[in-house]
Amino acid sequence: MRNQIFVGCFLAPLIMVGCQSAEKQTNSKGDKPNIIYIYADDMGYGEVGVNGQEKIKTPNLDKMAAEGMVFTQHYTSSPVCAPARCGLMTGLHTGHAYIRGNKPVLPASFTDAVENGQQPLPDGTVTIGKMLQKAGYVTGAIGKWGLGMTGNSGAPNRQGFDYFYGYLDQRQAHNFYPTHLWENDQWDSLANPYIFVHTPSSRGSEGNAQAMERFAKSDLDYGDEGFFEAYKGEEYAVDKMTEKATQFIQGNKDRPFFLYLPYTIPHVSLQVPDAALEPYMGNFEEEPYLGQQGYAPHEFPKSAYAAMISYLDQEVGKILQLLKAEGLDENTLVIFTSDNGPTFNGGVDAAYFNSTAGLRGLKMDVYEGGIRMPMVARWPGKVPANSKTDHVSAQYDVMATFADLAGIEAPIGTDGISFLPALMGKIIKQEHHEFLYFEYPEKGGQLAIRMGKWKGVKTGLRQQPHADWELYDLQKDINEVNNVAKQHADIIKQLEVIAKREHGEPVFEEWDFMDKVLSE
Questions:
Q1: What's the number of domains the chain is made of?
Q2: So what's the pLDDT on residue 26?
Q3: The pLDDT of residue 33 is above 80
Q4: What is the DSSP string of 253-269?
Q5: 8 A C-beta contact, residue 172 and residue 178
Q6: What is the distance between the alpha carbons of residues 205 and 3, in angstroms, rounded to a whole number?
Q7: Contact 269, 233 (CB under 8 A)
Q8: Is 260 among the domain residues?
Q9: Locate the Sulfatase N-terminal domain: which residues (predicted)?
Q10: Residues 48, 58: contact at Cβ < 8 Å?
Q11: Residue 204 pLDDT > 90, yes or no?
Q12: pLDDT of 265-310, one tens digit each?
């Protein structure tokens, strides 16, 4: 610390091997609780009812909050997908993490023929999965991975997960009706045609031949009647995730399990089953989205976005109900949160839904709207019901927290602090961070440090390495409107010292401009 399988062994021979391995580790639950970590994709702080959302219904998450604890100052590790997941998995902030941006393995493509994924976690990485396997847990990851592909070092089965099901390549996850998902290292075909979702700006570009052929056969063009139907399929990926999660929980109920459940909602494209869309039809004034900001078009974009979040809420409800039905409710910690703030493209109107609850910034921003996350935790009899905590924490604290839960030491050299005392309502025993550190080399190069009530921000660092600090007093100015840097030179000096100390040399050349920024 620097700052202070089983899914039914009948499914496949590979999974049977995983089951045998788990039995060698432990045949009884002992005192170890089950852990389920549900990770939404691009869901804003204000997109749950408990945080003030009024237009989108999230009854299951609101009930989960009433039965558990809401964290009001919980941060992701990064304002974008891959580095957020890296920080979560490794317990490292983005000044130390291997993956600091959404860097694809080239050649990159949205097609089935070329599925190379993002930069993989290297061999030797210590992950939450590996840590909990050693502690006697059977581990599963079901949803969006984004940290490596089958056959390379970042594959989830090589990074501590006995079982994986879902998307390996984040680009594939832009389509909720894919031709396939991955089950461990095997392609699991779904009953969907190939759908190329990046239109119209990318229509006719690399990889779009199959989509163009479909349009040619139907003689459709943008906005034509029936055009929007081309972006629908038979099997919705989220349904498959919940189905596999159900099997994993039922198959491992007699042993301690860790289920990492990174759903892909509400990341665009705007795709949701018609039945889920129906309750929102007519609720909003809206015009068709034709794909002008990328991703798939949708005839009713506001209704679709709201319906996607409610669909995710429904799936969370299914998981919680399953735990009760299987008698696991009182021995399972469930955490719900998101990887980063709401998006700005793909037909999403974050301002209309007040998706950040008024916080400044969106996805890819180190302002609060991009990095402060909704978080709800539930564990009957352990986590105080209907409670809130203002404890300042980050997702790179999760590894230390789960080590604490499992009764083991957290790996040496990580940046996290266990928030288990706060989670259990014992805030007086809770250790606190001196600071939280966020380094993001994309979108111009950004840096943020949360230090007590103070928040320092730098942006545009690629072009202006000596950009001035912005400074906000979050106790008085949670929306980061009033820059008080000139009045607090002493705080700025402290931020400079932290930034230079916490930045480690990145592995990839396109991120090394941050070395110059933070070494002078």
A1: 2
A2: 36
A3: yes
A4: TTS-EEEEE---TBSSS
A5: yes
A6: 47
A7: no
A8: yes
A9: 33-408
A10: yes
A11: no
A12: 999 999 999 999 999 999 999 999 988 888 999 999 999 999 999 9
* pLDDT tens readout for residues 427-438: 999 999 999 999
Same domain, 317 and 429: yes
Q: Which of 396, 413, 434 is the last residue of a domain?
A: 434
Contact 43, 262 (CB under 8 A): no
| 100's tokens | 């600091």
User: Any bridge partners for residue 186, and if so which?
Assistant: 183
Q: What amino acid is encoded at 212 in this protein?
A: M
Domain shared by 493 and 352, yes or no: no
With beta carbons less than 8 A apart as the criterion, state whether 195 and 271 touch: no
> What is d(CA 407, CA 48) in angstroms, rounded to the nearest whole number?
32
Buried b / exposed e across 151-172, counting CB within 10 Å, b at 16+? Answer: ebebbbbbbbbbbbbbbbbbbb
Radius of gyration of the chain (CA): 22
What is the chain's mean pLDDT, rounded? 91
Which residues, at least 6 apart from 189, have a Cβ–Cβ distance to it below 8 Å? Answer: 179, 180
Q: Who contacts 272 (Cβ-Cβ below 8 Å, separation ≥6)? A: 176, 236, 304, 307, 308, 311
Which residue, of 402, 434, 466, is where some domain finishes?
A: 434
Between CA 160 and CA 169, with CA 166 as vertex, the angle to 5 degrees is: 90
Given a cut of 70, whether residue 7 has pLDDT beyond it is no
Which CATH number belongs to the domain containing residue 471 in this structure? 3.30.1120.10
340 and 44 in contact (C-beta within 8 Å)?
no
The pLDDT confidence band at residue 114, using thresholds 50, 70 and 90, is confident
What is the three-class DSSP state of 156?
helix
Which DSSP string do the residues of 167-202 spell out, in sequence order?
Answer: ESSTTGGG-SS-SEEEETTEEEE-S------S-STT
DSSP 273: -
Model-wide pTM > 0.70 = yes
Mean pLDDT of 54-59: 99
Q: What percent of the chain has pLDDT over 70?
A: 89
Q: Which residue matches tokens 């317990």?
A: 91
**Helix, strand, coil % in the chain, rounded to nearest 5:** 30, 15, 55
Sorting pLDDT into bands at 50, 70 and 90, what band is 520?
Answer: low
Q: Which residues pair with 183 in a beta bridge?
A: 165, 186
Task: Give the residue numbers spanning the domain of 499.
Answer: 441-520
In terms of domains, do 304 and 400 share one? yes
Q: Are residues 242 and 136 in the same domain?
A: yes
126-161 confidence digits (pLDDT tens):
999 999 999 999 999 999 999 999 999 999 999 999
196 contacts 133 by C-beta, under 8 angstroms: no
Burial 100-132 (b: 16+ CB within 10 A, else e): bbbbebeeebbbeeebbbbbbbeeebbbbbbbb
Instruction: Give φ, ψ of 319 to 5 degrees.
Output: -65, -45
Residue 391 CB contacts under 8 Å (≥ 6 apart), including other chains: 71, 73, 419, 422, 427, 430, 432
Under the banding of pLDDT at 50, 70 and 90, the label for residue 110 is confident
